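Case study.
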Amino acid sequence: MKTEVLVIGAGPAGSTAAMGLARDHDVVLLEEHPRPGSPIQCAGLVTPRGVPAFASDSVINRVRRARIHSPLGYTLALEAKGTRAFVVDRARFDMMLFERAVDQGASAMSGAKAVSVGQGDDGVAVSVESGDGLAEVSCAVAIGCDGYRSATRKATGLPPAKHMLTGIQADLVGVELDPESVELYLGSKVAPGFFAWAIPAGETARVGLCTWDAEHAPAVYLKKLLARPEFAKAKRVSSSSGMIPLGPGRTARSGRILLAGDAACHAKPLSGGGVYTGIRGAEFCVECARSFLGTGEEAALERYDPLWKEAFGKELTNAFRLRKVYVSLSDKKMDKALRVFSEPSLLALVQDKADIDYPASLTTQVLKLAPKLAQFSPELIESFLK
Ligand SMILES: Cc1cc2nc3c(=O)[nH]c(=O)nc-3n(C[C@H](O)[C@H](O)[C@H](O)COP(=O)(O)OP(=O)(O)OC[C@H]3O[C@@H](n4cnc5c(N)ncnc54)[C@H](O)[C@@H]3O)c2cc1C
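After joint prediction, the assembly is written out as follows.
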């Protein structure tokens, strides 16, 4: 089979790329599972800018508060004036994006897995395994949106993620959470290398965590988290698990292959969120692929890296540097650092200005207000203040 564009993976990034190109070009959208959005591997917390208006029916809650629990028992409470994040039904969200891509004219191949990806002078050839056996799809340009295990990324020879988080989550009923607040739990005994969360999602609470470089499997930490008094009487209705690749590389392109979303390691290093950057990156893929298909000039595809770097790449790089400081902190230092944020001027800055998609952009202002944070990593702090 021949097509102009092959999009591999129908998550938020893949469906966005397919819907943007399908009106004017032949687009095949490949998804290994029979149904996009399933199994779910997400807490569903997405900023309003990450939810396209046509998918607003997938929003089940809005949050504007956060309570951050330190490893030593201190709680920092943050409250914004308006909604800071939506809680979405991720299965529905993914399905709405997928259906939009199909409505725009993309040919969907579900239950079809890319098993090998090869690149020649005049395009990309992908072997696809489905119930009908093995078939080859060739295309002028391929957009790899196949998530954290990306076969497309492997085929490009780009290095793997710098840090790979392992996540686990349980959906609970019978938990009383503030419907407008997320709870975050920090500490080496709670979620080493990341944090744990409890998110109010309508009828259920999503309680989960990610770990990195941890002594035990995530399930061990989840069991301990669920033993906390606030979850003790809850009933688990479902569970999910997955991984999050962190640390953007120097490029998300190789010849005629563009990578977006988790395949490009574009998840946010401080929160693990990857829906917004996945969608934004896919929109840039659309722009570059459209221009390439119109002109035949490969230089059009070279524009992809500068575009995503300008929009969110600098933020990801700085956030990854901050993450390195975060994972180096002992529980005692983490507690101490969190307490610094209770100072009124700093608290006001964070509550008014912090943007979940661009948290690192506030670093210089935070450090100017609280120079004592320099004690946690003098070299890093100096580099941000230059
Ligand atoms: C526990 C957990 C909680 C999270 N919470 C949040 C959150 O609250 N907010 C947020 O923004 N992000 C969150 N994330 C991250 C988020 O889920 C991802 O960053 C996001 O889904 C990335 O979108 P994507 O389209 O790049 O990849 P995916 O959503 O992973 O989609 C990739 C698609 O490609 C398909 N695929 C894979 N390989 C192949 C193949 N070889 N052939 C064909 N199809 C293939 C997959 O089946 C999948 O449908 C969380 C992740 C985890 C693990």
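Observations recorded in class. Residues 8-14, 30-33, 36, 41-46, 113-114, 145-147, 149, 151, 167, 169, 208, 242-244, 261-263, 267, 272-275, 278 surround flavin-adenine dinucleotide (CB under 6 Å). The chain is about 30% helix and 30% strand. We will return to this complex in the next lecture.
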